[in-house]
């Protein structure tokens, strides 16, 4: 059975290679694109580098907005408030549930059992920041809360039957 499958694979590979060879041999030399279509040729010649430059600039500029601790620290400054967070089926444990507004907070997020998603929702229900909670690993999440109120933590990673119950709250004051 296995050797039959191997022979079939070999046969298809040889046939496919022969077809490609045959097509390549008949194709001849490539014609310059400008002669085939001058307008599209010009768009390709000028447009491709322009797209690469624009996307390259967008990539470099957007690096500062990545949700990683190092890029957030560069933008927000070093954290002055530290909150230890542990996710477990199906609850969140926080070392403190009162957070001063306007200060850079570092959440040190881990999990006690399986992977969870640490998602922080503003008082009006918007997801404002999130990070993965993983067993055996601590993720740093930096954020500055400018609006006071009661924020809700919801698990964003399906973690079995009690997942929808996995919520907690903290107050920014
Ligand atoms: Cu979950």
Protein described:
The chain has helices spanning 2-27, 33-36, 38-62, 69-76; strands spanning 81-88, 91-94, 98-99, 104-111, 116-121, 127-133, 139-144, 149-155, 167-172. The mean pLDDT is 91. It has 173 residues and is of the alpha+beta class. The strands form two sheets. It has a five-stranded mixed sheet with strand order 3-9-8-5-6, with no helix packed on it. A four-stranded mixed sheet has the order 2-1-4-7. β1 and β2 form a beta hairpin. Helix content is 36%, strand content 31%. It is built from four helices and nine strands, in the order ααααβββββββββ. Bound molecules: copper (II) ion. Residues 116, 155, 157-159, 163, 166 line the site of copper (II) ion.
List its traits:
173 residues; 4 helices; 9 strands; 36% helix; binds copper (II) ion
Strand content: 25-35%
Helix count, DSSP H or I runs of 4 or more residues = 4
Quantity of strands, as a count: 9
> How would you sum up the global shape?
flat
Largest sheet: 5 strands, mixed
Helix-residue proportion? 25-40%
Bound molecules: copper (II) ion
Terminal residue distance: 70 Å
Multimerization status: single chain
Give the strand order of the largest sheet, numbering strands 1, 2, ... along the chain: 3-9-8-5-6
Radius of gyration: 27 Å
Query: Could you report the average pLDDT, rounded to the nearest whole number?
Result: 91
Spell the H/E element sequence.
Answer: HHHHEEEEEEEEE
Uncertain segments are: none
Which secondary-structure class do the elements indicate? Answer: alpha+beta
């Amino acid at each position: 059975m296995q050797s039959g499958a191997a022979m079939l694979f070999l046969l298809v590979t040889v046939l496919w290679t022969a077809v490609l060879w045959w097509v390549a041999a008949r194709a001849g030399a490539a014609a310059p694109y400008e002669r085939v279509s001058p307008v599209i040729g010009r768009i390709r010649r000028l447009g491709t580098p322009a797209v690469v430059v624009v996307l390259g600039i967008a990539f470099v500029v957007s690096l500062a907005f990545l949700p990683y601790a190092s890029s957030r620290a560069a933008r927000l400054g070093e954290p002055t408030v530290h909150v230890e967070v542990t996710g477990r089926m199906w609850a969140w444990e926080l070392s403190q549930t009162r957070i001063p507004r306007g200060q850079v907070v570092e959440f040190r997020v881990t999990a006690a059992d399986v992977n969870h998603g640490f998602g922080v929702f503003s008082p009006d229900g918007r997801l404002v920041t999130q990070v993965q909670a993983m067993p055996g690993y601590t993720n740093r999440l930096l954020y500055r809360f400018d609006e006071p109120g009661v924020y809700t933590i919801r698990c964003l990673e399906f973690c079995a039957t009690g997942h929808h119950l996995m919520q907690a709250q903290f107050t920014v004051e």
